[in-house]
Amino acid sequence: QVQLVESGGGLVQAGDALRLSCAASGRYVHTYALGWFRQAPGKDREFVAAINWRLSQVAYADSVKGRFTISRDNAKNTQFLEMNSLRPEDTAVYYCAAGPWPLRLGRGADYWGRGTQVTVSS
Fold first, then answer.
1. What DSSP character marks residue 114?
2. Backbone phi, then psi, for 91, in 5-degree steps?
3. pLDDT tens-digit profile of 43-72?
4. Which end of the chain is more exposed for a tag (fewer CB within 10 A), N or C?
């Protein structure tokens, strides 16, 4: 089993930056791909970014490509999402996720955090 806890959300202005963190725990957590999904009010949950356990592959949704950067520190069992040039449409609850690579396809994530709110004002 894997436990995931997100942090770092908040209220910012358009063009600002935030860094989200996700602390992961579990016996085999280092073998899972880690990533992020988000859900805005009235919309379905959507894939944002993922990184595999060997740190050799990354994937991004088209809407965030070039603005967001995903990374992970396997020694500390922590992943990060650096969010730059934030836009009002990035406003959502962001969820940390773990599962098989690629995280956005097939069965998707097997484990989820409870989410952290990101709000971007214009």
1. -
2. -60, 125
3. 999 999 999 999 999 999 999 999 999 999
4. C
